[in-house]
Hints:
The protein is mostly helical. Helices cover 80% and strands 0% of the residues.
Amino acid sequence: FDMDYQELWANLKRAGVYLPLVLLLWLFVYLINTTSWYIIIRSGGKPGFSFARLYKFTVTGFALNYVTPVGLMGGEPYRIMELKPYIGVERATSSVILYVMMHIFSHFCFWLSSVLLYLCLYPVGWVMGTILGAITVFCLLVAMLFVKGYQHGMAVAFVRLGSHLPFLKKKVIRFADSHREQLENIDKQIALLHQQKKGAFYAALFLEYTARVVSCLEIWLILNVLTRSVSFADCCLIAAFSSLLANLLFFLPMQLGGREGGFALAVGGLSLSGAYGVYAALITRVREMVWIVIGLALMKVGNKK
């Protein structure tokens, strides 16, 4: 990239004013995430704990997802364990699965809307048209799977999928046989939100989508250190396409390499220097590390035992 290490370090120092704003921004992003999860939990009855405690679980859950391979394998079991003493294992599991589905579904909605935004702002050649068409088809197919999951539940489907995995087949089948009733109850609770409490369903989805859009302010703040020629709409496109590439590498802890490459390609696709993308990715890494430390520290704060 056309940026040497000294220039990179100089730009990192220039971010001193903006970095606290970026860190503060994610305080509000996590607040929106927590509100979405709180709506899902409240749809099944009173939770029995404060909103502040759920905010703590949210931040720590995301911190664990950042640092574990196949991200959801870290934060979601932690959230279920934390909620279990308050609302029971079945309701805790269904609320966490529902929230994860909502969080992931909002990503696909964001990527689809970004395709429309790109079509409105930029001319599309056959190469970019092919890429955008592939993204659209992929997102629509996954969206259909999620709608089916909301209608019928996902717990049993996940267990059936696990029963086909090598080395895990026997254990998964034994687990399914011994917990069949609990898994069916979890699926009923998942389907209940979409079938009977549509207001809560769409409110949670809207909040998760809003969190995606608000998080784009981070890229806008960072890139405004380097250039004034980037609009907020451009930052939404950068966030969408870089996150799409990074999520394809979900098996890497913190999506190392994928995020940086995604930023560089996305920024380059808007006729800007790819070095800007690397710079933006580095600042987001600093923000992630700070919030990881905060999230892991919160695991030891405010516990009953």
